[in-house]
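<instruction>
Derive structure tokens from the sequence

<record> Sequence and structure tokens follow
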Amino acid sequence: MSKMAACIFCKIVKGDIPSFKLFESERIFAFLDIQPLSKGHALVVPKHHGSKLTDIPDDALAEILPVVKKIAAASGAENYNVLQNNGRLAHQEVDHVHFHMIPKPNETEGLGIGWPATPTDMEALKKLHADIKAKM
């Protein structure tokens, strides 16, 4: 069985698995998460199957953030997170690119985030900056 055939999000996009669809276009599909972190938690996926952001063509990505923005506005959420994970270490559970729009109505509902920042090392940042820019 191909990865696409086994992919739960591809099955949702094709209609093989029912969903609470919020939006659909030629390239994008959006629906409510059935295991929400808060009321209004939605997923926006490109119809193009790819595991990581770098696997998705730019034209398939161009519409995603405007759709996330529409859903955030329609949800009425004053505070919310937009999340997109790539790979198991980054907490990606489904191997199909997807963006979460997660309302944060209070301290206990929605996404909880730790931010383990490291001390600033300007010399290391200068080298990293040069390395990344050289590959773009």
User: Anything to note?
Assistant: The mean pLDDT is 94. The longest strand covers residues 28-32. Residues 3-134 form a domain with the HIT family, subunit A fold (CATH 3.30.428.10). The two ends are 35 Å apart (CA to CA).
